[in-house]
């Protein structure tokens, strides 16, 4: 079980969250933002980790927003192995965001895979691109590709964020993954619709094959079982 997130809240006047905000989006803080974060009463381990992030200008990730909270953007920092893989949660004022960013393109994971798997991975990424999907890698592989710090371990899944343009496009992308010969590390991830709704690709495939009436949809402000008709693509 992942360690509980540690919270650092920002006290600020209410602000309207940017319209483009969504889960698994990255953001980078201004110097003033980092100064405020580092001024909070962290323990030594968290302070050391946050200090590295601040010094290198590394990103934080947008997480599910807490209900009725407009005063801050909820973000997280899943720390690498050297900091015990602890999860640090923060609240960031909109004015502290320098710019928004994204996880690396999926081919960035190539250098983290065994040499013998590189060619097969490139084939899969190309097949996804051929459907019009531009996959990105997140989770442990994504963070290691971004930071060059140790995240990946023997049981790490390879997580893909898979933007899709329609329900039919989601079907095509899920079938490409299902038909792939890729075996290890396990391939996980989410189909990402245009409105920010996300569905695990394996769950989507199972639903489309008649195994369930609904799918678990993750949104910026909550999680719910929905039918695909409720998704805005």
Relevant terms:
233 residues, alpha+beta, six-stranded mixed sheet, four-stranded mixed sheet, 6 helices, globular
Q: What's a concise summary of this model?
A:
The protein has 233 residues and is of the alpha+beta class. The protein has helices spanning 31-38, 44-56, 118-130, 139-147, 167-179, 201-208; strands spanning 6-8, 26-29, 60-62, 73-78, 87-92, 97-101, 136-138, 158-163, 187-192, 198-200, 215-219, 222-226. The longest helix is centred in the first third of the chain and has 13 residues, at 44-56.
The gyration radius over C-alpha positions equals 18 Å
Number of strands: 12
Tally of discrete structural domains = 2
Broad shape: globular
Order of helices and strands: EEHHEEEEHEHEHEEHEE
What proportion of the residues is helical, as a percent range?
25-40%
Mean pLDDT: 87
How many helix segments?
6
What structural category arises from helix and sheet content? alpha+beta
Mind describing the biggest β-sheet?
Answer: 6 strands, mixed
Distance between the termini: 33 Å
- Low-pLDDT stretches: 10-16
Into which percentage range does the β-strand content fall?
A: 15-25%
Widest sheet, order of strands: 1-5-4-3-2-6
What does this structure look like?
This protein is α+β, with helices and mostly antiparallel strands and 233 residues long. The protein has 2 domains: 96 residues, no CATH class; 125 residues, no CATH class. Helices cover 27% and strands 24% of the residues. The chain has 6 helices and 12 strands. The strands form 3 sheets. Strands 1-5-4-3-2-6 form a 6-stranded mixed beta sheet. Strands 7-8-9-10 form a 4-stranded mixed beta sheet. A two-stranded antiparallel ribbon has the order 11-12. β11 and β12 form a beta hairpin. α1 runs antiparallel to α2 and α5 crosses α6. The longest helix has 13 residues. It is globular, with a radius of gyration of 18 Å. The protein starts with 5 loop residues before the first strand and ends in a 7-residue tail after the last strand. About 3% of the residues have low confidence.
């Amino acid at each position: 079980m992942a360690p509980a997130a540690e919270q650092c809240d920002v006290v600020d006047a209410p602000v309207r969250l940017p319209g483009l905000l969504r889960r698994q989006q990255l953001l980078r803080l201004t110097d003033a933002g980092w100064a405020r974060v580092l001024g909070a009463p962290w323990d030594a381990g968290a302070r050391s980790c946050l200090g590295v992030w601040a010094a290198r200008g590394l990103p934080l990730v947008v997480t599910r927003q807490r209900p009725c909270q407009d005063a801050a953007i909820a973000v997280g920092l899943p720390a690498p192995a050297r900091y015990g893989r602890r999860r640090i949660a923060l609240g960031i004022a909109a004015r502290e965001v320098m710019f928004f960013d994204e996880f690396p393109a999926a081919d960035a994971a190539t250098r983290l895979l065994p040499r013998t798997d590189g060619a097969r991975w490139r084939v899969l990424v190309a097949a996804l691109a051929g459907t019009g999907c531009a996959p990105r890698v997140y989770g442990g592989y994504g963070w290691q590709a971004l930071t060059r710090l140790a995240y990946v371990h023997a049981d790490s899944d390879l997580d893909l964020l898979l933007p899709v343009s329609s329900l039919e496009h989601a079907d095509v992308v899920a079938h490409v993954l299902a038909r792939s010969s890729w075996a290890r590390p396990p391939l996980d991830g989410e189909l990402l619709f245009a409105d920010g709704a996300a569905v695990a690709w394996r769950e989507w495939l199972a639903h489309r094959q008649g195994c369930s009436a609904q799918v678990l949809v993750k949104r910026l402000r909550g999680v719910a079982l929905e039918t695909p008709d409720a998704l805005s693509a």
